[in-house]
Amino acid sequence: MELDYSVGQILSLLQGLGIEKNTFVFFTSDNGAALISSPHEGGSNGPFLCGKQTTFEGGMREPAIAWWPGHIKDGTVSLQPANVMDLFTTSLALAGISPPDDRTLDGMDLTAVLLNGSHKLVNRPIFFYRGNEMMAVRLGQYKAHYWTWSNSWEEFQHGVNFCPGQEVPGVTTHDQKEHTLEPLIFHLGQDPGEKYPLSVLTKEYQEVLRSISAVVQQHQKTLVPGMPQLNMCDLAVMNWAPPGCEKLGKCLKPPKSAPWKCFWPH
Fold this sequence. Notes:
Layout: H1 2-16, E1 25-27, H2 57-60, E2 65-67, H3 86-94, H4 111-116, E3 125-130, E4 133-139, E5 142-145, E6 147-148, H5 153-157, E7 177-178, E8 184-187, H6 203-222, E9 232-233, H7 245-248, E10 260-261
């Protein structure tokens, strides 16, 4: 209710200022519901497996809403797979700005889907990473898991569970399991919950594996690793003086910068 209200306030302000037809609004999330929270606070990912902190559909898949009166037709629905990195490339295109040519951009321009209502889907791959490890790849309706891991035994035994009540034998694992020779492949259209991997003996599995393997090989061949931005932690960079703290006399002085190597058990 709070989120619905706050978004409504933003849209109402745009309309009140008379600039809604010149403003592109995009609403989405960076992850699925955090099922680790209590059942009444963590939210629900519907039919999708697990939640935030995993590379299963419940952890990575979320809806999006694009709003731009006079440019995006009301009520249209697209099944085009996309990711938040596409927003950078798309925003440049909408602004008529050429993307920089001194770096590799992972994002795709979505203007054809957004503005023209194109129902022709671009068969682009989506890569699911956990740290530096490519865990899974989606291509069209198929998703191949090269590694599976929900959370560590240590976390699980301390009550940390990213897949409460959703354990799937051989799929949700508390040790990082390698499937690189025979990845687990799911048809998300028929099995959005990732419960029934295709049999490796079927023709369908072999054909899909060939297609996805070619995509993975090209991806790994051209991949340019970036500098990790979550590998160091520093309390000094936290917000110690949020807006309004002066009036309340609650502003805190940040501590001396003392970065350390972050530890991310999941």
